[in-house]
Amino acid sequence: MRSPRSRVSFCATLLLAASHLGSSLTVPQVFKNTNLLRTIDASKGYVKETIAVIIENTSDKPQTEYYLPFSVPGSSAVSYVECKDKKEGTPCNAEAVDDSSDFPLKYYKITLPATLQPKGQVTLSISAGITGALEPIPAIIGQGDKQFLSYTGDRYAPSPYLTEKQKTKFRAANGEIPDYTDFGAKDVEKTGFTLTYGPYDNVKPWKSEPKPESLTVRFEFTMPVIYMEKLERDIEISHWGNNLATEERYWMTNNGAKLKDQFSRVAWATSSYYNPPTAAIKSLLFPLRGGSKDAYFTDEVGNVSTSRFRSDTREAVLDIKPRFPVFGGWNYSFVVGWNNDLPGYLRRGKGDEYILKVPLLQGPSQSTSYGEVEVTIILPEGATDIKYLAPITIGKEERFLHKTFMDTLGRTSVRLTINNVVDDLKNKDIIVTYNYSASAAFRKPLVVLVSVFSLYVISALLARIDLSIGK
Amino acid sequence: MAPAQASFFKDPASTQNIRGILRVVILLTIAAASISSRLFSVIRFESIIHEFDPWFNFRATKYLVKHGFFEFWNWFDDRTWYPLGRVTGGTLYPGLMVTSGAIWHALRMISLPVDIRNICVLLAPGFSGLTAFATYLFTKEMKDSSAGLLAAAFMGIAPGYISRSVAGSYDNEAIAIFLLMFTFYLWIKAAKLGSAMWGGLCALFYFYMVSAWGGYVFITNLIPLHVFVLILMGRYSGRIYVAYSSWYALGTLASMQVPFVGFLPVRTSEHMAPLGIFGLIQLVAFVDYLRGHVSSKQFNTLLRAIVVVITIVSFSGLVLLTVTNVIAPWSGRFYSLWDTAYAKIHIPIIASVSEHQPTAWPSFFFDLNFLIWLFPAGVYLCFRQLRDEHVFVIVYSVMASYFSGVMVRLMLTLTPIVCVSAAMTVSSILDAYLELDTPEEPDEAEIKKAKKSKDASVTATGGFLSSKAPYIGIYSITSKVSVIASFSVYLVLFVLHCTWVTSNAYSSPSVVLASRMPDGSQHIIDDFREAYYWLRKNTAEDAKVMSWWDYGYQIGGMADRTTLVDNNTWNNTHIATVGKAMASGEAVSYEILRKHEVDYVLIIFGGLLGYSGDDINKFLWMVRIAEGVWPNEVQERKFFTARGEYKIDADATDTMKNSLMYKMSYYNYQSLFPPGQATDRVRGAKLPAEGPVLNTLDEAFTTENWIVRIYKVKDLDTFGRDHFSARAFESGKKKARKTGLGNRATGKKGRRNVRV
């Protein structure tokens, strides 16, 4: 008898062996891309690649699985892949293929929303967030200099299928694009913020040999490249306090071009009069849900007084200013937190069941990418049967008891770790269901009552003891 | 009805419970008042550790909580006093940290995981409530519980004590004043009862005090002094003997367990008084014992012989021990208590601390308000009764009054006794004037009778002065009302004054500065934390930061970087080295910086904002301390102009202008202003048009209001040049290029002109 776990590892070994033998993932040639439009949006400090493609089933059998690779050279990585039927709007499932033999390609297996009959066509819209694909060039700039980012990718959209017609649009942050690869012969056209490559006819399936042609674009990026190395986000529920407390701890760096000389306060003070765009992080704006209250902004040395918070029932904004402008390569870590009334987020289900719906990620409105996100949901003491439905794949899940104020057992908590996140995920909700009985709810007041009462009894007894020797 | 009620109130037996409850309620209210009046800074700013020393205590507490007690005991801190390091575990008073650590653990045990920072911030207010309670107990022993309650209330809100115990001022004094009062209470109790148990308890709290504050020496000397005075007054008794012997033996042994104290109690002059008194009291006890067994004539000869022999033996022994250096002579700090000019001449580092200056007279009124003029009256009342414990109050008053006049910070030890004495006065006045019934006019005969019986009782108890006290009552309602009303006004004014002083003078964290915006809203100037946090986040983990010693603890606590010197001024030479680096020219300084592997230099500059506590104003102390070690290389005279003025403008001396401190302070400052307009707002001086040039340092970070400026020490030049020629070369090149550009620009212009 083999346990399922050993079977998994056995399969993994097989797969590893297969990749070492050189026999890479074989994609059955059952589709062709009739028309493909690739949009590379680099206006946010990370790359958002959207592929709109009409695919046709060229085999004689109905098909459901379509493969699509994304090119992730160097330290770049795919953060998420989303897919939908463009006409119907129905979402389809995209799943990473555990195979790295075709490096730098990362394959995704897309399950079509409906089985595609032979000769049938469907239009898919697949978008992916790719982090680490932009690099500041020059890597070191002066305090007042312009910052440029550079993107390097493939000239043709990689695909394991034949593509009859394709076009690539590159979207820069603004119109200033000093360098870009020009393949000649009216191959590329620049209009405003956008570069359009193509159209190209009959592009053959992607092969690592000969080396595919690459395109490089260097464009001006007037915003900072905000990267949160780590985010710890705690969501704590209190039934008694009728409160949903959120605390977020950020470790931030600016991944933009590094500062050439040292920081000059004179230059910074004089330039701040006319408020030019800068590659330094001056402030962060956290859009919060309506009704948020008691916001705070602190860091390791205490409260930071440079924050503004306004809130009404419809929306709330927390505007924070780090202690110092965070230039390229500089770090800053901070904590923000706020409270919400619980009824807006918690609903009672059948019996003792409760359903909680909270955003998985909030975070600044400026485009941001995250290295590691740890979301901890702290449920009341005594909550059981926790189930959750996350909007994206969760890297690691951990369940533990979080012991804090006046807990006897500790509060039931779930920690979800997600790596490599971009802020397209913002404001997507996670749904958590749990059981919480009335007896568990009354545990805390009872414990407090009993302990205070016993304290009285003990002190009363002690006061009555006479320790004197003789009268 | 009315008489029944009156008798109900007066009958002590029937009101005992009510009085007890009332006392508890009043004490709790006093504790609440004293805690809440210390929270101004938390409400106005935040829960933050204040000033300088508390930052070290906070850092040490965090270390204790993180690594446990034994690690803390053996803590060698390599992040301070680079490259020497500091045996921190053995050179601090651990009482404060251990107290907060214990509270932290205790709260965790009952599942209240409070952040250690909040415990540290709120420790001083919490203990102030206990101090009020200890003062109550102490005063109760002196007079009665109503005086005790008044003393507790005074102690709770007296600014003299608040100055050292607001929330966030996490310093040794925070718990030490409570321990001081409680030890004294236990001592009085022990001396009154002659109980070894109370003596032992007194020793226990004395040990706690020793572990918490260097000011324990005050107790060490005051209790023997009390005993000595009692012996001189011929009031030796078995009670005193038991109390003192048990306190001294247990307390001294216990105090020696604190590593920082170690063998000091038997080896230094400061601790010789209790030892001497211990010997003396044995002698007196022995003589007392002999007196009971030998006839009086023999006794007198014997006594004389014993006293002469023992005095000669012990004194010569003491001299011998001092000469052979077994007993350390008086320390400099001690001398400065007797001669206020001593420190200025011999130990500038002590004199450079503002709290070591002699007290200005208004500060007595500022810190104690109406208590200060009630204080002598209270001492007088002690003379009237003059029981053993009253002698203690008198001795304490005399000593503390003297010391508080010598050093500002010792106002702290004066405050409790002022509160006690003033409470006794006020209570006596209220006792006399708040009596509801007008006394019946007594007959002449009755008065005589009363006088007689009183005389009898007085002679029986052996008191003096009090024999003159006839039966006195207040007959006129007017005088009752006027006295009570005026004292109510004084009390109300006292409360107002205390609140005002606390809120305005003692509640600033000094890490954060507050100012007002034009629209009246509060604006926080947070430059210190801006700079420290920048250091913490954007420099190498092991970077060494050089600054004047004032900022050492803050850099260690907030920036978490290695420092060269800090507020624990144990090594004068090292501090002088930093002073020399700041006061010398770049060539000399750079060598010092390289030798100490300094990466960053941090200075405080208030010129832009008008912040007067900056480094240029402290600069002369750096010069003086450096001069004390290198009199040939650093000379204070050279920093003054020919007319003897300390100037930073165009008239400043060359030595001043070339010193590293001057250059770092004003580097690039001129470029903030239109040409020739640069002014220093602290010193109200116009600066020379040409700013200083730095060759060996780079400006790394300057805070928003320029209060903190951080410079990076340049690496050795890549081409092996010295920094002066390298900079000259580079600036020359730059100049050439600039002029080239300029030419081109003018050329263009010229061409255009031609075209037109």
UniProtKB/TrEMBL annotation, chain A:
Location in or out of the cell: Endoplasmic reticulum membrane
Q: Which residues cross the membrane?
A: 446-465
- Chain's role: Subunit of the oligosaccharyl transferase (OST) complex that catalyzes the initial transfer of a defined glycan (Glc(3)Man(9)GlcNAc(2) in eukaryotes) from the lipid carrier dolichol-pyrophosphate to an asparagine residue within an Asn-X-Ser/Thr consensus motif in nascent polypeptide chains, the first step in protein N-glycosylation. N-glycosylation occurs cotranslationally and the complex associates with the Sec61 complex at the channel-forming translocon complex that mediates protein translocation across the endoplasmic reticulum (ER). All subunits are required for a maximal enzyme activity.
What does the record note on quaternary structure? Component of the oligosaccharyltransferase (OST) complex.
Q: Does the keyword Transmembrane helix apply?
A: yes
List the membrane topology term(s).
Single-pass type I membrane protein
Which top-level group of life is the source organism from?
Eukaryota
Q: In which pathway does it act?
A: Protein modification; protein glycosylation
Q: Name one GO biological process term.
A: protein N-linked glycosylation via asparagine
Where is this protein chiefly located? endoplasmic reticulum
Supply the source organism for this entry.
Answer: Drechslerella stenobrocha 248
Arranged from A to Z, the UniProt key words for this protein are:
Endoplasmic reticulum, Membrane, Signal, Transmembrane, Transmembrane helix
Question: Pfam families, from UniProt?
Answer: Ribophorin_I
Gene Ontology cellular component annotations, sorted alphabetically: oligosaccharyltransferase complex
State the name under which the record lists this protein. Answer: Dolichyl-diphosphooligosaccharide--protein glycosyltransferase subunit 1
The secretion signal range is 1-24
Which InterPro entries does this chain map to? Answer: Ribophorin_I
Family, according to the entry, reads as follows: Belongs to the OST1 family.
Is Lipid biosynthesis given among the entry's keywords?
A: no
Automatic annotation (TrEMBL), chain B:
List the residue ranges of the region (Disordered). Answer: 735-756
EC numbers: 2.4.99.18
Task: Identify which top EC class this enzyme belongs to.
Answer: transferase
Q: Which reaction does it catalyse?
A: a di-trans,poly-cis-dolichyl diphosphooligosaccharide + L-asparaginyl-[protein] = N(4)-(oligosaccharide-(1->4)-N-acetyl-beta-D-glucosaminyl-(1->4)-N-acetyl-beta-D-glucosaminyl)-L-asparaginyl-[protein] + a di-trans,poly-cis-dolichyl diphosphate + H(+)
Q: In which pathway does it act?
A: Protein modification; protein glycosylation
| Coiled coil feature spans | none
Q: Tell me the Pfam families matching this sequence.
A: STT3, STT3-PglB_core
Functionally, this protein is described as follows: Catalytic subunit of the oligosaccharyl transferase (OST) complex that catalyzes the initial transfer of a defined glycan (Glc(3)Man(9)GlcNAc(2) in eukaryotes) from the lipid carrier dolichol-pyrophosphate to an asparagine residue within an Asn-X-Ser/Thr consensus motif in nascent polypeptide chains, the first step in protein N-glycosylation. N-glycosylation occurs cotranslationally and the complex associates with the Sec61 complex at the channel-forming translocon complex that mediates protein translocation across the endoplasmic reticulum (ER).
Q: What is the name of the protein in this document?
A: Dolichyl-diphosphooligosaccharide--protein glycosyltransferase subunit STT3
